[in-house]
Design a protein that fits this description.
The chain has helices spanning 2-18, 78-87, 90-98, 102-110, 112-119, 139-142, 144-158, 163-170, 174-187, 189-205, 226-258, 260-265, 286-298; strands spanning 28-30, 39-41, 68-75, 207-209, 215-217, 268-273, 276-282, 314-319. By secondary structure, it is α+β, with helices and mostly antiparallel strands.
Length: 326
């Protein structure tokens, strides 16, 4: 009862109340956030249930106009790719260049027994399913627990999570969480060095910067309380990543907006949500529009900005509603 009531009050009713005479939703976007990422309200379209959480298929209510379809394009592991670029981490750059599942590769780098199993051919790190079923078990299936912890760490590092936070999330002692964190950094020493240098710079300058140089002031890092200083130190290493993702997405949206190809195809951008953009246009041009959106997002930088050390990967689909696009 409680879960259903929450679903009604937080998602379904706000959509009904905010729909216009044409049954379209127009949220308000906030540009003035700490990292530069957009946020939305009335209603909050960035907080709609996704994937398995969308058991009532609320995203199915977001449909294209008749005769039109949606192009939904999403960056893959954008923050981690930016972390690899900014830290010049050889291990991460190699993992992204090699392709496959990044979290499985992280698990292999962290756990000696997982690497031994891959090296011995007992499990497969990756497999091309167009060739049929894999001849050996996959790493993600046999060592699911190790992969989940590797995945958690991958994102936790980017968000500046502490040993205390990790031990709480995993239900383990701080010593166990510390050992896991040390194993992650042992395979990626450049990341730890970058974090230390970025925090030291924040203490000297009182600010931190994003990928293209936007500043975020860290008021209180010089003379704040211990808890405030700890929070601002995490912000110092998180903002370049989250703000960098906002930089990339903003540049991509500008490129999409200026695309003469998309204009000729009749496609326009409806919304940006986290690392995802949604466009709408004539159904008969869907494939061409999808290809152009991917091209814009994979190469968002112009001649005056340097490119990344790792490639950007975009997953794009066409569908008549938002639910089917995921």
């Amino acid at each position: 009862m409680g879960a259903i009531d929450t679903m009604l009050s937080n998602f379904i009713i706000p959509l009904q109340e905010n729909a216009d005479a044409s049954s379209r939703i127009h949220c308000s976007l906030n540009l003035n956030t700490e990292t530069g990422r957009l946020s939305s309200r009335s209603p909050n379209l960035q907080n709609q249930p996704a994937l398995e959480k969308d058991q009532y298929r609320i995203r199915q209510a977001f449909t294209a106009e008749e005769g039109k379809t949606l192009v939904v394009a999403d960056y893959g592991q954008l923050e981690l790719r930016l972390l690899a670029h900014m830290t010049e981490c050889a291990s991460m750059i190699d993992a992204f260049s090699s392709g496959g599942c990044f979290h499985s590769r992280t698990a292999m780098g962290m756990f000696d027994h997982v690497r031994a199993a891959v090296d011995a051919g007992e499990v497969l790190l990756e497999w091309d399913y167009t060739k049929g079923e894999p001849p050996k078990p996959m790493l993600k299936d046999v060592y699911g627990s190790e992969r989940r912890r590797a995945k958690t760490l991958n994102f936790s590092i980017a968000y500046g999570k502490t040993v205390f936070g990790l031990s709480k999330d995993w239900g383990v002692t701080r010593e166990e969480a510390r050992a896991m964190l040390d194993a992650w950094y042992a395979d990626r020493p450049e990341v730890l060095q970058w974090q230390r240098e970025t925090i030291a710079r924040a203490h000297r300058m009182g600010n931190t910067r994003t990928l293209i140089g936007r500043y975020r002031n860290l008021d209180g890092i010089f003379d704040g309380t211990r808890s405030l200083v700890s929070h601002l130190e995490r912000a110092a290493i998180n903002t370049p990543i989250q703000g960098g993702a906002a930089d990339v997405m903003t540049l991509a949206m500008l490129k999409i907006k200026r695309s003469e190809v998309l204009k000729k195809l009749g496609y326009k951008m409806l919304l940006q949500i986290h690392d995802e953009v949604i466009l709408e246009g004539p159904k008969e041009h869907a494939d061409a529009a999808r290809d152009e959106v991917v091209a814009c997002m994979e190469s968002p930088f112009d001649e005056s900005l340097p490119s990344l050390l790792v490639g950007l990967v975009v997953d794009a689909k066409t569908a008549d509603n938002w639910y089917e696009a995921k």
